[in-house]
Amino acid sequence: MPFPEINIQNKTFFSLSSNAESIIQEDMHTFGCNSFGVFTNTIIENFWEIAESSVSFRLQSARKSYERILQNCSLDAKMKKEVIDALMESEKKNAQESIELCKKDKTDLRHVIYLNKANAEILFEICDEQEIYKDRVSLYIKCLLEEYATLPYIQREQIYYKKTFEDINRACSENRLIRVYPPKDQKGENAKIEDRKSNNKKNKDKEIKDQKNKKKESYIEVYPYRILTDSMNTRSYLACYGKTEKDTSPKIASFRISNLKNYRVTSQDGSLTNKETDDIEAAIQKRGVGFLIGEPTEIQVRLTDAGKRLYETKLFSRPQYNYVRSEENTYVFSCTEQQAFVYFHPFGKDAEILSPPSLRERMIQSYKDGLKQYKK
Question: What pTM value is reported for the model?
Protein backbone atom coordinates (compact mmCIF):
# COMPACT_ATOMS: atom_id res chain seq x y z
CA MET A 1 0.00 0.00 0.00
CA PRO A 2 1.08 3.65 -0.44
CA PHE A 3 2.33 5.62 2.55
CA PRO A 4 -0.20 7.30 4.84
CA GLU A 5 -0.29 11.06 4.49
CA ILE A 6 2.06 12.72 6.97
CA ASN A 7 0.63 16.21 7.46
CA ILE A 8 -1.39 18.83 5.62
CA GLN A 9 1.80 20.53 4.38
CA ASN A 10 3.40 17.27 3.16
CA LYS A 11 6.44 18.25 5.20
CA THR A 12 9.08 15.66 6.04
CA PHE A 13 12.46 15.53 7.81
CA PHE A 14 15.50 13.35 7.16
CA SER A 15 19.30 13.36 7.28
CA LEU A 16 21.83 12.03 4.78
CA SER A 17 25.23 10.39 5.00
CA SER A 18 28.28 12.61 4.55
CA ASN A 19 28.91 11.14 1.11
CA ALA A 20 25.33 11.65 -0.13
CA GLU A 21 25.28 15.16 1.33
CA SER A 22 28.47 16.04 -0.55
CA ILE A 23 27.35 14.51 -3.87
CA ILE A 24 23.94 16.21 -3.77
CA GLN A 25 25.44 19.60 -2.96
CA GLU A 26 27.89 19.20 -5.86
CA ASP A 27 25.10 18.21 -8.25
CA MET A 28 22.96 21.13 -7.17
CA HIS A 29 25.84 23.45 -8.05
CA THR A 30 26.57 21.67 -11.36
CA PHE A 31 22.92 21.57 -12.44
CA GLY A 32 22.28 25.16 -11.36
CA CYS A 33 19.67 24.40 -8.70
CA ASN A 34 19.81 26.59 -5.58
CA SER A 35 16.95 24.94 -3.68
CA PHE A 36 17.50 21.67 -1.81
CA GLY A 37 13.74 21.11 -1.78
CA VAL A 38 13.36 21.60 -5.54
CA PHE A 39 16.35 19.36 -6.22
CA THR A 40 15.23 16.47 -4.01
CA ASN A 41 11.65 16.68 -5.29
CA THR A 42 13.01 16.38 -8.82
CA ILE A 43 15.10 13.31 -7.93
CA ILE A 44 12.20 11.59 -6.15
CA GLU A 45 9.82 12.19 -9.05
CA ASN A 46 12.29 11.09 -11.74
CA PHE A 47 13.98 8.20 -9.92
CA TRP A 48 11.45 6.27 -7.82
CA GLU A 49 10.26 3.92 -10.59
CA ILE A 50 13.73 2.62 -11.42
CA ALA A 51 15.39 2.79 -8.00
CA GLU A 52 16.47 -0.31 -6.12
CA SER A 53 15.10 1.44 -3.04
CA SER A 54 11.57 0.97 -4.42
CA VAL A 55 11.66 -2.52 -2.98
CA SER A 56 8.02 -3.57 -3.48
CA PHE A 57 8.09 -2.32 -7.05
CA ARG A 58 11.33 -4.23 -7.64
CA LEU A 59 10.05 -7.41 -5.97
CA GLN A 60 6.98 -7.44 -8.21
CA SER A 61 9.23 -7.26 -11.27
CA ALA A 62 11.53 -9.95 -9.86
CA ARG A 63 8.62 -12.32 -9.23
CA LYS A 64 7.36 -11.93 -12.80
CA SER A 65 10.89 -12.55 -14.07
CA TYR A 66 11.25 -15.75 -12.00
CA GLU A 67 7.85 -16.94 -13.20
CA ARG A 68 8.92 -16.49 -16.81
CA ILE A 69 12.21 -18.31 -16.22
CA LEU A 70 10.50 -21.32 -14.57
CA GLN A 71 7.58 -21.36 -16.98
CA ASN A 72 8.92 -24.16 -19.19
CA CYS A 73 10.80 -26.18 -16.56
CA SER A 74 9.67 -29.66 -15.45
CA LEU A 75 8.67 -28.62 -11.91
CA ASP A 76 5.01 -28.85 -10.95
CA ALA A 77 3.05 -25.73 -10.00
CA LYS A 78 3.49 -26.25 -6.23
CA MET A 79 7.26 -26.69 -6.49
CA LYS A 80 7.57 -23.65 -8.76
CA LYS A 81 5.72 -21.56 -6.18
CA GLU A 82 7.98 -22.78 -3.38
CA VAL A 83 11.13 -21.98 -5.38
CA ILE A 84 9.88 -18.50 -6.27
CA ASP A 85 8.75 -17.80 -2.70
CA ALA A 86 12.20 -18.80 -1.40
CA LEU A 87 13.93 -16.54 -3.93
CA MET A 88 11.61 -13.67 -3.09
CA GLU A 89 12.20 -14.11 0.63
CA SER A 90 15.95 -13.82 0.02
CA GLU A 91 15.45 -10.70 -2.10
CA LYS A 92 13.28 -9.13 0.58
CA LYS A 93 15.80 -9.95 3.32
CA ASN A 94 18.64 -8.31 1.37
CA ALA A 95 16.50 -5.22 0.79
CA GLN A 96 15.66 -4.92 4.48
CA GLU A 97 19.35 -5.23 5.42
CA SER A 98 20.14 -2.40 3.01
CA ILE A 99 17.43 -0.25 4.58
CA GLU A 100 18.83 -0.90 8.07
CA LEU A 101 22.30 0.18 6.93
CA CYS A 102 20.81 3.29 5.38
CA LYS A 103 19.07 4.18 8.66
CA LYS A 104 22.38 4.13 10.54
CA ASP A 105 24.34 6.12 7.95
CA LYS A 106 23.57 9.79 8.57
CA THR A 107 25.04 13.12 9.61
CA ASP A 108 23.95 15.63 12.21
CA LEU A 109 22.62 17.91 9.44
CA ARG A 110 18.85 17.49 9.23
CA HIS A 111 16.89 18.48 6.15
CA VAL A 112 13.27 19.45 5.78
CA ILE A 113 11.43 19.39 2.47
CA TYR A 114 7.87 20.04 1.35
CA LEU A 115 6.76 17.40 -1.13
CA ASN A 116 5.39 18.85 -4.35
CA LYS A 117 2.03 17.83 -5.78
CA ALA A 118 3.46 15.17 -8.09
CA ASN A 119 5.45 13.48 -5.31
CA ALA A 120 2.53 13.64 -2.89
CA GLU A 121 0.50 11.71 -5.45
CA ILE A 122 3.32 9.21 -6.01
CA LEU A 123 3.98 8.54 -2.32
CA PHE A 124 0.46 8.66 -0.94
CA GLU A 125 -1.51 7.17 -3.84
CA ILE A 126 0.75 5.04 -6.06
CA CYS A 127 3.98 3.88 -4.41
CA ASP A 128 3.50 0.54 -2.55
CA GLU A 129 6.36 0.83 -0.07
CA GLN A 130 4.41 1.29 3.17
CA GLU A 131 5.03 -2.21 4.56
CA ILE A 132 8.73 -2.35 3.69
CA TYR A 133 9.47 1.04 5.23
CA LYS A 134 7.08 0.69 8.20
CA ASP A 135 5.01 3.78 7.28
CA ARG A 136 8.15 5.96 7.29
CA VAL A 137 8.05 8.00 4.10
CA SER A 138 11.10 9.99 5.26
CA LEU A 139 13.16 6.78 5.43
CA TYR A 140 12.12 5.84 1.90
CA ILE A 141 13.12 9.30 0.63
CA LYS A 142 16.47 9.01 2.43
CA CYS A 143 17.14 5.61 0.85
CA LEU A 144 16.25 6.97 -2.60
CA LEU A 145 18.67 9.87 -2.23
CA GLU A 146 21.43 7.70 -0.77
CA GLU A 147 21.12 5.34 -3.73
CA TYR A 148 21.12 8.27 -6.16
CA ALA A 149 24.41 9.48 -4.66
CA THR A 150 26.11 6.12 -5.34
CA LEU A 151 25.43 6.30 -9.09
CA PRO A 152 27.99 7.51 -11.67
CA TYR A 153 27.67 11.17 -12.61
CA ILE A 154 26.28 10.47 -16.07
CA GLN A 155 23.39 8.44 -14.61
CA ARG A 156 22.64 11.18 -12.08
CA GLU A 157 22.56 13.69 -14.93
CA GLN A 158 20.09 11.49 -16.81
CA ILE A 159 17.86 11.28 -13.72
CA TYR A 160 17.84 15.01 -13.02
CA TYR A 161 17.26 15.93 -16.68
CA LYS A 162 14.84 13.07 -17.33
CA LYS A 163 12.30 15.23 -19.17
CA THR A 164 14.98 16.76 -21.41
CA PHE A 165 16.34 13.34 -22.34
CA GLU A 166 12.82 12.09 -23.10
CA ASP A 167 11.97 15.16 -25.20
CA ILE A 168 15.19 15.04 -27.20
CA ASN A 169 15.03 11.27 -27.75
CA ARG A 170 11.46 11.68 -29.00
CA ALA A 171 12.55 14.43 -31.37
CA CYS A 172 15.36 12.21 -32.70
CA SER A 173 13.09 9.20 -33.25
CA GLU A 174 10.31 11.28 -34.87
CA ASN A 175 12.68 13.57 -36.85
CA ARG A 176 11.27 16.71 -35.26
CA LEU A 177 12.95 20.10 -35.56
CA ILE A 178 14.04 21.57 -32.21
CA ARG A 179 14.32 25.26 -31.46
CA VAL A 180 16.93 26.17 -28.86
CA TYR A 181 16.54 29.60 -27.28
CA PRO A 182 18.96 31.61 -25.11
CA PRO A 183 18.72 30.75 -21.39
CA LYS A 184 15.94 32.58 -19.63
CA ASP A 185 17.37 35.47 -17.65
CA GLN A 186 14.51 37.91 -17.70
CA LYS A 187 15.17 39.08 -14.18
CA GLY A 188 18.72 40.25 -14.90
CA GLU A 189 17.77 41.87 -18.18
CA ASN A 190 14.76 43.65 -16.75
CA ALA A 191 16.86 44.93 -13.84
CA LYS A 192 19.25 46.54 -16.29
CA ILE A 193 16.38 48.12 -18.16
CA GLU A 194 14.78 49.45 -14.99
CA ASP A 195 18.09 51.01 -13.90
CA ARG A 196 18.25 53.12 -17.02
CA LYS A 197 16.97 56.59 -16.37
CA SER A 198 14.30 57.67 -18.78
CA ASN A 199 11.83 60.52 -18.38
CA ASN A 200 9.77 59.28 -21.25
CA LYS A 201 7.68 56.30 -20.08
CA LYS A 202 6.54 55.56 -23.61
CA ASN A 203 10.13 55.11 -24.81
CA LYS A 204 10.93 52.96 -21.82
CA ASP A 205 7.95 50.66 -22.49
CA LYS A 206 9.00 50.42 -26.12
CA GLU A 207 12.54 49.50 -25.07
CA ILE A 208 11.28 46.66 -22.86
CA LYS A 209 9.04 45.43 -25.66
CA ASP A 210 11.95 45.49 -28.12
CA GLN A 211 14.07 43.50 -25.70
CA LYS A 212 11.37 40.83 -25.39
CA ASN A 213 10.84 40.68 -29.13
CA LYS A 214 14.57 40.28 -29.66
CA LYS A 215 14.65 37.36 -27.28
CA LYS A 216 11.68 35.74 -29.01
CA GLU A 217 13.33 35.98 -32.41
CA SER A 218 16.71 34.63 -31.30
CA TYR A 219 16.93 30.85 -31.56
CA ILE A 220 18.88 28.04 -33.18
CA GLU A 221 17.14 25.54 -35.44
CA VAL A 222 18.35 22.06 -34.57
CA TYR A 223 18.07 18.99 -36.78
CA PRO A 224 18.70 16.22 -34.23
CA TYR A 225 20.66 13.03 -34.80
CA ARG A 226 21.29 11.17 -31.54
CA ILE A 227 22.17 11.63 -27.87
CA LEU A 228 25.69 10.32 -27.32
CA THR A 229 28.23 10.34 -24.50
CA ASP A 230 31.83 11.48 -24.75
CA SER A 231 34.70 9.02 -24.98
CA MET A 232 35.09 8.91 -21.19
CA ASN A 233 31.35 8.35 -20.67
CA THR A 234 31.05 11.40 -18.42
CA ARG A 235 28.82 13.82 -20.38
CA SER A 236 25.82 13.53 -22.68
CA TYR A 237 25.51 15.50 -25.91
CA LEU A 238 22.96 15.91 -28.69
CA ALA A 239 24.76 15.47 -32.00
CA CYS A 240 22.95 17.43 -34.69
CA TYR A 241 22.97 20.00 -37.46
CA GLY A 242 22.31 23.53 -36.22
CA LYS A 243 21.37 26.76 -37.96
CA THR A 244 21.09 30.30 -36.61
CA GLU A 245 19.11 33.01 -38.38
CA LYS A 246 22.39 34.34 -39.78
CA ASP A 247 23.45 30.99 -41.28
CA THR A 248 22.55 30.16 -44.85
CA SER A 249 22.66 26.41 -44.18
CA PRO A 250 22.86 24.11 -41.14
CA LYS A 251 26.26 23.05 -39.77
CA ILE A 252 27.38 20.07 -37.73
CA ALA A 253 27.10 20.86 -34.03
CA SER A 254 26.49 19.38 -30.59
CA PHE A 255 24.75 20.57 -27.44
CA ARG A 256 25.47 19.30 -23.96
CA ILE A 257 22.12 18.03 -22.67
CA SER A 258 22.47 19.76 -19.30
CA ASN A 259 22.83 23.10 -21.14
CA LEU A 260 19.52 22.77 -22.97
CA LYS A 261 17.59 24.90 -20.51
CA ASN A 262 15.22 26.56 -22.96
CA TYR A 263 14.09 24.59 -26.01
CA ARG A 264 10.95 23.55 -27.87
CA VAL A 265 10.33 20.40 -29.90
CA THR A 266 8.30 21.56 -32.90
CA SER A 267 6.03 19.72 -35.33
CA GLN A 268 8.26 20.75 -38.24
CA ASP A 269 10.35 18.23 -40.15
CA GLY A 270 13.88 18.00 -38.80
CA SER A 271 15.08 14.92 -40.66
CA LEU A 272 18.64 14.47 -41.90
CA THR A 273 19.82 12.95 -45.16
CA ASN A 274 21.96 9.81 -45.20
CA LYS A 275 24.95 11.94 -46.18
CA GLU A 276 24.38 14.32 -43.27
CA THR A 277 24.24 11.46 -40.76
CA ASP A 278 27.40 9.97 -42.27
CA ASP A 279 29.12 13.36 -42.01
CA ILE A 280 28.13 13.65 -38.33
CA GLU A 281 29.48 10.17 -37.60
CA ALA A 282 32.74 11.01 -39.36
CA ALA A 283 33.07 14.26 -37.38
CA ILE A 284 32.44 12.42 -34.11
CA GLN A 285 35.13 9.87 -34.93
CA LYS A 286 37.59 12.64 -35.74
CA ARG A 287 36.82 15.30 -33.12
CA GLY A 288 34.63 13.71 -30.45
CA VAL A 289 30.98 14.51 -29.83
CA GLY A 290 31.78 17.37 -27.46
CA PHE A 291 33.70 19.40 -30.05
CA LEU A 292 31.64 19.28 -33.23
CA ILE A 293 31.16 23.04 -33.52
CA GLY A 294 33.83 24.74 -35.57
CA GLU A 295 36.20 23.47 -38.22
CA PRO A 296 39.44 21.67 -37.31
CA THR A 297 42.57 23.73 -37.79
CA GLU A 298 46.28 23.16 -37.29
CA ILE A 299 47.35 23.80 -33.69
CA GLN A 300 51.01 23.93 -32.66
CA VAL A 301 51.89 23.51 -28.99
CA ARG A 302 55.25 23.49 -27.20
CA LEU A 303 55.26 21.15 -24.18
CA THR A 304 57.72 20.94 -21.31
CA ASP A 305 58.70 17.54 -19.92
CA ALA A 306 55.99 17.98 -17.30
CA GLY A 307 53.56 18.94 -20.06
CA LYS A 308 54.38 15.75 -21.95
CA ARG A 309 53.62 13.69 -18.86
CA LEU A 310 50.34 15.54 -18.45
CA TYR A 311 49.46 14.84 -22.06
CA GLU A 312 50.12 11.14 -21.54
CA THR A 313 47.88 10.92 -18.47
CA LYS A 314 45.12 13.51 -19.07
CA LEU A 315 42.81 11.58 -21.38
CA PHE A 316 39.59 13.60 -21.25
CA SER A 317 39.12 15.77 -24.38
CA ARG A 318 42.66 14.96 -25.50
CA PRO A 319 43.35 15.75 -29.19
CA GLN A 320 45.62 13.37 -31.10
CA TYR A 321 48.87 14.81 -32.42
CA ASN A 322 50.38 14.30 -35.86
CA TYR A 323 53.25 11.86 -35.33
CA VAL A 324 54.94 12.73 -38.62
CA ARG A 325 54.92 16.52 -38.29
CA SER A 326 55.53 16.76 -34.53
CA GLU A 327 59.04 17.26 -33.13
CA GLU A 328 60.63 16.56 -29.76
CA ASN A 329 58.97 19.44 -27.90
CA THR A 330 56.61 20.89 -30.50
CA TYR A 331 53.41 18.97 -31.16
CA VAL A 332 51.09 19.49 -34.13
CA PHE A 333 47.36 18.83 -33.74
CA SER A 334 44.36 18.97 -36.05
CA CYS A 335 41.38 19.94 -33.89
CA THR A 336 39.11 22.89 -33.18
CA GLU A 337 40.48 25.86 -31.29
CA GLN A 338 37.88 25.26 -28.59
CA GLN A 339 39.08 21.71 -27.96
CA ALA A 340 42.71 22.86 -27.76
CA PHE A 341 41.77 25.69 -25.39
CA VAL A 342 39.75 23.44 -23.07
CA TYR A 343 42.41 20.74 -23.01
CA PHE A 344 45.63 22.77 -22.71
CA HIS A 345 44.40 25.63 -20.50
CA PRO A 346 44.93 23.65 -17.25
CA PHE A 347 48.54 22.89 -18.28
CA GLY A 348 49.58 26.44 -17.37
CA LYS A 349 53.30 27.03 -17.87
CA ASP A 350 53.81 23.49 -19.20
CA ALA A 351 52.04 24.17 -22.52
CA GLU A 352 52.61 27.13 -24.85
CA ILE A 353 50.31 27.70 -27.81
CA LEU A 354 52.49 28.65 -30.78
CA SER A 355 49.77 28.92 -33.41
CA PRO A 356 47.24 29.95 -34.55
CA PRO A 357 47.64 33.53 -33.25
CA SER A 358 43.93 33.77 -32.34
CA LEU A 359 44.18 30.83 -29.95
CA ARG A 360 47.49 32.04 -28.53
CA GLU A 361 45.99 35.45 -27.78
CA ARG A 362 42.89 33.85 -26.24
CA MET A 363 45.07 31.79 -23.91
CA ILE A 364 47.19 34.82 -22.93
CA GLN A 365 44.10 36.90 -22.21
CA SER A 366 42.54 34.14 -20.13
CA TYR A 367 45.65 33.85 -17.93
CA LYS A 368 45.80 37.65 -17.58
CA ASP A 369 42.16 37.78 -16.50
CA GLY A 370 42.83 35.08 -13.91
CA LEU A 371 45.88 36.95 -12.59
CA LYS A 372 43.78 40.09 -12.04
CA GLN A 373 41.89 38.30 -9.27
CA TYR A 374 45.13 37.93 -7.31
CA LYS A 375 46.22 41.55 -7.80
CA LYS A 376 43.18 43.11 -6.21
Answer: 0.78
